[in-house]
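User: Fold this one for me? It's Carbamoyltransferase.
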Amino acid sequence: MRTAVKVSVRGRVQGVGFRPFVFQLADIHKLVGTVQNNMDGVKIHLEGNPTSIEAFLSDLKTKAPRLSKINEILVHDTKVQHAVDFSIIESERSGTSMLVIPIDSAVCDDCLTEMNDPSDFRYQYPFINCTQCGPRYTIIEELPYDRPYTSMKEFPMCEDCRREYEDPRNRRHHAQPIACPNCGPKVRLLNSQGLEIELENPIKATIKHLKEGKIVAIKGLGGYHLSCDARNEQAVVTLRKRKKRPLRPLAVMAASISEIEKFADFNNAEAEVLKSPESPIVVMKKNGYYGLADALAPGMRTIGAMLPYTPLHHLILADPELTCLVMTSANPSGMPILFKDEEAFQYLDGIADYYLIHNREILHPVDDSVVQINDGKLDLLRRSRGFVPDPILTDKDVSGIVSFGGQQKTTFTIGRNEQIFIGPHIGDLENIETIHHYQRELEHLLKWIDTPKTTAVIDAHPGYQVKNLVKEYGFAEVLEVQHHHAHMAACLEEHQIAGKAYGIILDGTGYGFDGSIWGFEIFYGDASEFERMSHLHYTPLPGSEKCIREPWRNATAMLISLHGKKGIELAKEIFADKLPEIDILKVMIEKNINTVMAGTCGRLFDAVSALCGVAKMSTYDGEAAIKLAELADDRKVYLPYPFDLRNEEILSIHFSKTILEIAEDIIENKDISEISGRFHETVVQAIVSAMSHLQSIAPETEKTVVLSGGSIHNRYLRKRLNTELTRLGFNVYLPVKVPCNDGGLSYGQLVVAAAKRRSLSCV
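Assistant: Here's what I get for Carbamoyltransferase.
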């Protein structure tokens, strides 16, 4: 007996070979009907034997394509239409969008095999792809994801490509970026004046120039990279000078896992992430055989590395004498990623010697994602290419909420029904170019995601750019959320924690309700509200932002405010080259001139880093804290320095004894790695002691704790806090899907807004 069902599949089911998969599955189970993309996902009409339909539905869930992610399958009985075969029909573009926008994916092994096969007609073609790999989000103009609505519309398919594209049994069936040397995009090599210089084999010429120590701007999947030979010290130094990036670590791209083994230690989890379809930069520890240029990551014990993720990368790195390249974003400092050719020529003038470009337009730029494996778990430092704009599912209605993030490492987040879409990494909103980049990407995703603009959410800081940006979008209401409450809420939501919990937030800067700078907090509450239970004792920041750029000022201010005359003496001994400035800082603190009070983990780390002589000045965000953290061995447990807990208005954590002993240890020339390790353990023990005290005075509170804030990227803190709090009986949760730094702030803001909306509806 023939029966019929209508199947709706929602999730990441477009641009991943899902319709050919459905076609082949129907063929296996002898079923007839249709499959179609629409604005809601994929619609399937099935007719046949009921047992065969059941088997089909089982395989649909368990054998879906590698890049697909099924969120929901709805099955309803329907009328038999007496279909005679199974076919893939044209996409339907009407209706409300519930689509998951396909993400960009690293080139797959099947395509690489073909690309390296001299008998294949795509031999050495740098834009080879299939339904399981290649560009997606970066080339989309409109939805649904079909070739006429991508930048590939400029390249009419040849007969060979069309034959594959239309064959439902071919892995390139409806692969929208399908191309070959006869009909697809092409690369060109230009000199520093923008003139084409190599017509026959631009890739071979590029390899030659890289081996000669030249700097090449390479147009990739989501934007331009600046590249040079990672083993050529002079080339790396020259790149740093030209880009005005003196110390910040540079990412490298290695030809293979075996090449990475030559300079980094990594475990199985790190290897799996390196080889994943997302293919992010993975921060790993350098090994004893490290043979790359010292200037790549000066003074660091870690290195950020990735594998080639486009066919073009593989072709460049195929030369046995060029197996590791610097591959750093080509944007000038503070600017958004460069992705348009004319902008690259403008901004990279005087930096790049050559430009390897192509004529497939990038419509949506994305930076490389950056991750590390921290205490055995994924720790996202930057969530972008390969992850964006894949939604995070929730069990709450978040429709109509758009959150605008913060000032640094900013992202935006959009809610639709029970889907949360975090936008790509934008950067710091410090110039008009980055603000325009932010607005352009926000407006595209708002259009694609198609959700009402009901509630805008912004950081409570009165000076953040988002406060002005939000005015342009006409939201019914604008909600301000405290910075660290957003960090807490992000981790609560990720782990679906509905009740009350403690939030330990260790961060750099967040505007506090008392007008001071917060960033070392213990909260208790949920996504809708919180109570501040404990914090770091405030110390002054004379010159405010200048203390962040010059951590020695922060260290001096701590010594003066915590230890008076003795502190001044210590500061003058440690920072002997800053004697006049120290006297000025003393006056600024005493008379409260351009001075704010702060209690943040970031500034505490900066101060200790400066005292140790690790980083008295910061050339990039977080430099002082990062370099200090590099000195602490997360395989050890150190002896902590003394500290105090004081019951003031709320429980206050005092490190005055810690700072004093560290200063004395520095003067006695004690080992700074040991000082760093002891300081790290002091922070851990202070938090554990504070948590123990808070539980003792309020034993009825939940023994659930979430950790977040930028300092939770610190390997030692993350591992030891988890261990020690678990030992005390707490259930500890850490961010995994979303960065704990400000890249995850907009996600947390949206969660807070949704929780407040639910609480109001229950009143």
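One thing worth pointing out: The longest strand covers residues 501-511.
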